Amino acid sequence: NGSSDSVSESCIKIPTIKFSKLFINGQYVDSISGKTFETIDPRTGDVIARIAEGDKEDIDLAVKAARHAFDNGPWPRMSGTARGRIMMKFADLIDQNIEELAALDTVDAGKLFSFGKAFEIPSAANSLRYYAGAADKIHGEVLKMSRELQGYTLREPIGVVGHIIPWNFPSPMFFMKVSPSLAAGCTMVIKPAEQTPISALFYAHLAKLAGIPDGVLNVITGYGPTAGAAIASHMDIDKVSFTGSTEIGRQVMKAAAASNLKSISLELGGKSPLLIFDDADASKAADLALFGILSNKGEICVASSRVYVQEGIYDEFVKKLVVKVKAWVVGDPFDPKVRQGPQVDKKQFDKILSYIEHGKREGATLLTGGKPLYEKGYYIEPTIFTDVKEDMLIAKDEIFGPVMSLMKFTSVDEAIKRANDTTYGLAAGIVTKDLDVANTVSRSIRAGIIWINCYLAFDEDCPVGGYKMSGFGKDLGLDALYKYLQVKSVVTPIYNSTW
Ligand code: ADP
């Protein structure tokens, strides 16, 4: 790879970790058990901080605070304009701390610092602004009743929300969930992933500074089977918004059903296809394919992990791909030349390497990569397999790493059929100049977002979320706001005397 020297010591910057306790009812507190857990720097494997380990009892306290704030506090009762103003202030405070927040996510998750600074942290602030602008536009409808009745609907906040967040985008995911639920007037308990708890605790501090009332936004750091499970099965949480693996999503759904039938939304795994047609520019298509699978080291639920290339362009595409992947620099995510940092932790690192071994054993051809890099840290070479068949594990399972499965196809119909040959349905990409092909394919693929001649093109106003076993319920856009609202119908006779 481009950077063959080891991770340069000069690049290592560890910001001070200022917040490491649970945030309940506006205060930072130790966990009831007094336990803490380590969070590590994936560039080195070293411990960077010890964080309070919340458990069921801490979730109970946080839910009590959130319930009180919902039932009695000002947040759900204040005007949308007033909530929006506080959210705007929250966004400005994020802007004032962009570098520090980006650095925290870099040391906690191995994310590219430059990308965090330019996109991820600003997108967190912009998500607050987007929903702040919607907070004063939440209203119901006047109904056309067929009898002499007057009917209208109210959109009310759903109540206390539990947000369970994954580790791959600690800041954007936090705000994808928190911003619309704040705008709706909900109160909440947020559980960041145990691998990446640091920035969420910092955001709690900024929320308080911005004027979000105590109890509205609580952050409980801790593990999934304990703190996470306590949220999913809590009797006093009205809704859970979960992003993570399909396996855990299923458990969250079971726990919701077995407890109080709380409303849930699940954004789960993916195995998204990118379809490249003969008329594409091979060089641009190769750039897009690498961007789709190697961005954020492949730790993206919508990663383009299955790349289908039409036979007429296949050889040229592969040639370009090999040249480009050689120039793809893997290394310290603080280094501006670097395009790919370390995997989030040892567990993911081992899991990805074992999938690579599996791919070799299954008979796929290793075109590039396949090995770990450097003595320290969880770096893996960009890895491309060719001769992949749909029934191989590497083509079916979400690997969540820098591993591309490359496949050849002949016709448009075949491409659609094979792209849909997956239990998932999160995203898909199409590269073609032919409008008919783009229109046909985008309508035929069963996935929640289709990118034509682009990939990973996210926007605050553009909903994302799964079809099939990738889950249900959207993040982003106004659809996400409606997840946190419920419709109440109010009916009264027009003439009281006639009823
Ligand atoms: P991954 O496999 O990518 O780590 P997970 O689905 O395990 O994804 O984790 C996503 C989030 O779900 C994390 O915040 C994690 O702590 C939480 N989680 C894990 N297990 C459970 C569970 N049994 N109940 C609720 N939340 C859980």
TrEMBL record:
Every copy of the Aldehyde dehydrogenase domain together lies at 29-490
Q: How does it assemble?
A: Homotetramer.
EC number per UniProt: 1.2.1.3
Top-down, what is the taxonomic lineage of the species of origin?
Eukaryota, Viridiplantae, Streptophyta, Embryophyta, Tracheophyta
Provide the protein's localization: Mitochondrion matrix
Extract the GO molecular function terms from the UniProt entry.
aldehyde dehydrogenase (NAD+) activity
Instruction: Note the superkingdom of the native organism.
Output: Eukaryota
The UniProt entry's GO CC annotations, sorted and at most eight, read:
mitochondrial matrix
According to UniProt, the name of this protein is Aldehyde dehydrogenase 1
Q: What class of enzyme is it?
A: oxidoreductase
The record's family statement is: Belongs to the aldehyde dehydrogenase family.
Q: Which SUPFAM superfamilies match?
A: ALDH-like (SSF53720)
The keyword Ribonucleoprotein appears for this protein = no
Q: What is its main location?
A: mitochondrion
What does the record give as the reaction this protein catalyses?
Answer: octanal + NADP(+) + H2O = octanoate + NADPH + 2 H(+); an aldehyde + NAD(+) + H2O = a carboxylate + NADH + 2 H(+)
User: Keywords, A to Z?
Assistant: NAD, Oxidoreductase
Which positions are catalytic residues?
E267
